[in-house]
Amino acid sequence: MRTFLPAVAEQLFRDIQKIYEETTQTLTLPSSRLRRLKFVFGTCALQALDLVDQRSVTCLSSPSGRKAFQVIGGSGRLYTCFLSCHYCPCPAFTYTVLRRNQGLLCKHILAVYLCQAMAVTQQESVSDQQMSAVLSGTGGP
Amino acid sequence: MTDILTLVFRTLSSQTGQNKDPTAGPPPPAPRSKILVVGEHRLSRSVLLLAAVTAASELGVRVAFFAQSQIQSLPECLQRCIATQNPEGLKKITFSYPRTLEELLQQVASLHESPCPPSLIIIDRLDGFLRGAVAGSHVGFHSGDESRAAHLAALLCDTAAFLTEVLEKRGSSSAPCRAIASFLSDADSGQESRDPSATDSILDVLDRYFQARCTLDRDRSYEAAAAAAQEAWHVYLSGTKIPDDLEDGPALAQEWKLFIFPEGLMEFKLV
Predict the structure, then answer these.
(1) Do B150 and A87 touch (CB under 8 A)?
(2) Between vectors from CA B79 to CA B74 and to CA B82, what angle results, nearest 5°?
(3) Where is the chain membrane-spanning (chain B) (predicted)?
């Protein structure tokens, strides 16, 4: 995901990705990275890690090459996030990020970043028409 | 997108009226590919149409133009431009008239399905789509519209980013895919919003996704009369620094003067 994040957050994700690339057997985030994650992203860090553990993030792709992420939230609801910029239809994104400007992102978007870094994103193919419906919020697989 | 707008302004500027050498001074900031035009609707629509025609005829790029209300006529200066420019270029503009926000989202979301994708996406009057399904509705913004605004703006950005990749992979000179949208706040329209803080919050949300803003501000001083013009406007191009800017270079900050004459002609002057 092309990033709108501060450099410290970008570096953190690069570190996490490097750890998982070098030690593929490791499924637990080192405590130092965990502390940094909580420092940068606050309370949504642990919530996002729960979503990662549950393998809640899926990357949808269509024949045109278009992609999008879908995240199964804690309540079971499906949230669609974009590849190139931050958006999530969840109430936390609207309230904390957009309205109060008190957070960089919600747990769903953070879960996307973490799953990408740890290479645990599920993959699913959909038709171009289904992708359009997902992106517009009018439907989904 | 700022490069297209600057091209529009220069094309319609008086050759003898420039009081600044555009090549002098520090190197210009990198062009922004997503820009929000804020101001009175009649003028902002003219600016969008000028951008569409300039992009299609001068740069040869495909344009997707979305508006809630049909375009009944072109600005006078545009009609004169079309007469002198390559009319074939105008066939590259596709006009669509979605009636609701949902229709607009569906149409923008499906641009990736097109075998000949646009290089410029224009949306006229975001406020109309966000305010409600009925064009000309007098219902003000509700605070819950931030999510809708963010969804539309993010979809527009993500679509432009994807189409840029497609164009670049094809080796097209039309890359990157640019986006321009217009927005009119309730304060500028004279309408009262149910929630006075809601309008600014919508603009704040849109500013997260658009790299630059073109602000149209009516000049009510003597300048219009002095120039024998009917109207005078300040046109401000502004934006924060982006990674593509030079490290020591300026952020985007450009000011133009726009004179509109009784016969409808428009003339820009770099300040």
Answers:
(1) yes
(2) 120
(3) none
